[in-house]
């Protein structure tokens, strides 16, 4: 994992790791999400945690873009005053 972190940077890597779990394999074989077939399994919990982590990173990214957009709009307003 250290090599992956070094190559891509911590900001682009999710901390959650999906463990080897026979319940995930069974869910794949039955074409069903493991979070539905066996929600208490380690794999299901890990996928749920990964989804939460993804949503948090997405929120941070969108907040950053929103702030950058507001800053650019403020610059345009100031430029129009001149």
Helices and strands in order:
Elements: H1 2-8, H2 22-29, H3 34-37, H4 42-81
Task: Name a few traits of the molecule.
72% helix; 82 residues; elongated; mainly alpha; single chain
Task: Offer a quick outline of the entry.
The chain has 82 residues and is mainly α.
Describe the model.
- The protein is mostly helical and about 80 residues long.
- The chain has one domain (about 1-80).
- Helices cover about 70% and strands about 0% of the residues.
- The longest helix is centred in the C-terminal third of the chain and has 40 residues, at about 40-80.
- The chain starts with a helix and ends with a helix.
- The mean pLDDT is about 90.
* Category from helices, strands and their pairing: mainly alpha
Fraction of residues in β-strands: under 5%
Which H/E pattern describes the elements? HHHH
- Uncertain stretches: none
Radius of gyration: 20 Å
């Amino acid at each position: 994992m250290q090599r992956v972190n070094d190559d891509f940077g911590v900001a682009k890597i999710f901390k959650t790791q999906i463990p080897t779990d026979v319940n995930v394999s069974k869910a794949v074989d039955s074409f069903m999400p493991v979070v539905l077939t066996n929600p208490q399994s380690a794999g299901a919990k890990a996928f749920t945690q990964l989804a939460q982590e993804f949503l948090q990173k997405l929120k941070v990214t969108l907040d950053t873009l929103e702030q950058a957009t507001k800053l650019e709009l403020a610059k345009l307003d100031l430029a129009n005053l001149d």
